[in-house]
């Protein structure tokens, strides 16, 4: 069992739902969506950071400056990710299941 913490998420209810307010349920998401979330949040930014760092060092910039510019590259990435929040929230849907 994962964290026992109270969080608010929007879930899609099946048409035949019989859930009552306050009833304990499991909130579930497809495994592939979890993998996509890890890719967008951690793996892709790491690859972007690494590629830009190697590129800037290859262009002759010092390691410190190249590292700083590589970190600054992540600002627009996370800004775009934040602006795509509504579109991504439609893709990342949660369901509930009784315990």
Give, in order, the helices and strands: EEHHHE
- Gross geometry: rod-shaped
Q: What is the share of helical residues? A: 55-70%
Tell me the structural class.
mainly alpha
Number of helices: 3
Task: Supply database-style keywords.
single chain, 99 residues, mainly alpha, 3-stranded mixed beta sheet
Structure description:
- It is a single chain.
- The chain is mostly helical.
- It has one domain (about 20-95).
- It has three helices and three strands.
- It has a three-stranded mixed beta sheet, with no helix packed on it.
- The radius of gyration is 20 Å and the shape is rod-shaped.
Secondary structure elements and their pairing?
Elements: E1 11-12, E2 25-28, H1 31-58, H2 63-83, H3 85-91, E3 94-98
Parallel strand pairs: 1-3
Antiparallel strand pairs: 2-3
């Amino acid at each position: 069992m994962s964290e026992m913490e109270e969080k608010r998420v929007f879930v899609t209810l099946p048409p035949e739902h019989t859930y009552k307010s306050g009833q304990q349920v499991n909130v579930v998401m497809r495994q592939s969506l979890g993998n996509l979330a890890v890719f967008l949040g951690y793996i892709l930014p790491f690859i972007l950071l690494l590629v830009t760092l190697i590129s800037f060092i290859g262009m002759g910039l010092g390691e410190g400056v190249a590292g700083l510019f590589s970190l600054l590259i992540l600002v627009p990435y996370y800004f775009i990710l934040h602006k795509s929040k509504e579109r991504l929230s439609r893709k990342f849907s949660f369901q509930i299941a009784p315990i």
